[in-house]
Amino acid sequence: MPEPQSFPLGRLRWPVQIVQRGQAGDPNTTGVLETLIPIRTVRADVQPVGALTFWGTAGGNEQVDTPVTHRIYMRWQNSLPNAYAITRSTTLDDGTTRTEVFRVRRIKEIDGRKRFVIVECEEEKNS
Questions:
Q1: Strand pairing partners for 116?
Q2: In this structure, are residues 102 and 125 in contact, taking their beta carbons and an 8 Å threshold?
Q3: pLDDT tens string 29-43
Q4: Which domains can be identified in the chain, with CATH numbers?
Q5: Which Gene3D superfamilies does the UniProt entry name for this protein (predicted)?
Q6: pTM tops 0.70, yes or no
């Protein structure tokens, strides 16, 4: 999908949470416990990337080191480091909640005006 030059606000329909990863030693084992510390809740548009973008079969768009599975469009964020993640929780028809965790890979400004950004992410968990 080409990057839009203007971005309609109506597309920002999903409430997502920007979270910071916290790690601490597990007192019961030798492992590490990871916690997600909420930073802020924002509205966003979450879009999966197409197969050509993901697999890079055309145009030399190969993803070598950091795969991107989703693009998340949101209002400008001053700082969104790779240590952060974005979570989206959705209530399903049967009443259960599905939570998706996206690892931030790259952030791109839309139209050079510091109004909106595209956050390229990799889906880590879907539970």
A1: 75
A2: no
A3: 888 898 999 999 999
A4: 11-126 (2.40.10.270)
A5: Bacteriophage SPP1 head-tail adaptor protein
A6: yes
